[in-house]
Design a protein that fits this description.
By secondary structure, the chain is an alpha+beta fold. It binds flavin mononucleotide.
Length: 244
């Protein structure tokens, strides 16, 4: 029997070792862009201004957070939706040179992109949207009800269909590899974990529930969000909604 060891090999070969670290210069001229852009003819939606305060107190949020898998399918307000997106990946500090977000990112490279598959959010038709971080807005990629299809691709987990919306996170691999090479994959998954936790805590702070999702057929999700699965590929998901 052939033993598959890709994971073990990756763990072994992506370790930093004193004898082999250093000597690399960064190719600044070919630094990948930090933000994904879509054609200007696609429809855009401004989100309401997020509040950097409010919600349940932080330690109560930690105490209350649980993975919730039963959602009522109820509609949620645009204000809550906007607040959660900001908590997930919004800009919390900007200066002349950098824009920092609510979640940390290795090297400030922010390789994770956020897609929203909306089922029931006030003011939005169901569809697949991309979160445009610098503008706190959404671009509509495809309209239609994709909850059932997305749930099927997530190993038929029905919470994906019953949620108010789902967040799908992809990784732009080169954005991180440009600096970290093979070790980039470690950081990409760590980045996604931080983002997922922000989503979970923000949902509770806003009176909603969430469940983080790592079980899905990758290529089926990639097809739904229209990414190629190699330069950009899904890494993580979260379903958010009104708990029933
Ligand atoms: C990386 C990751 C992937 C997960 N994937 C799924 C999933 O696909 N489906 C699911 O129902 N729960 C999933 N969960 C939720 C875990 O089952 C849950 O966090 C765990 O049972 C602990 O329960 P708690 O979150 O309520 O504390 C995932 C959690 C993490 C962190």
């Amino acid at each position: 029997m052939i033993q598959i060891t890709y994971g073990d090999d990756f763990q072994k070969h992506s370790k930093y070792r004193r004898e082999s670290l250093g000597g690399k210069t960064l190719d600044w001229e070919n630094k990948p862009p930090l933000y994904k852009k879509y054609p200007s003819e696609l429809e855009r939606f401004e989100l309401s201004k997020p509040q950097p305060s409010g919600g349940l107190p932080f330690f109560s949020v930690l105490q209350e957070r649980r993975s919730e898998r039963n959602f009522s399918g109820a509609v949620i307000s645009e204000k809550t939706f906007s607040q959660i997106l900001w908590a997930v990946q919004g800009i919390s500090l900007a200066n002349e040179y950098h824009q920092f977000r609510t979640a940390p990112s290795a090297g400030g490279l922010f390789p994770i992109e956020t897609y929203c598959v909306i089922n029931q959010v006030e003011g939005f038709e169901p569809g697949i949207y991309h979160y445009q971080v610098p503008y706190h807005s959404l671009v509509l990629i495809r309209s239609g009800s994709f909850g059932t299809e997305l749930a099927r691709a997530a190993l038929s987990q029905k919470m994906v269909r019953d949620s108010a919306f789902n967040l799908v996170w992809s990784a732009m691999i080169e954005r991180s590899k440009w600096k970290y090479e093979q070790r980039a994959y470690r950081y990409i998954y760590l980045d996604a974990g931080h983002i997922g936790q922000n989503a979970a805590l923000a949902a509770v702070a806003c009176g909603l529930g969430s469940c983080q999702i790592g079980a899905f057929f990758d290529e089926e999700i990639n097809a739904i969000i229209d990414v190629d699965g190699s330069t950009e590929t899904v890494v993580y998901m979260t379903a958010i909604g009104v708990v029933s």
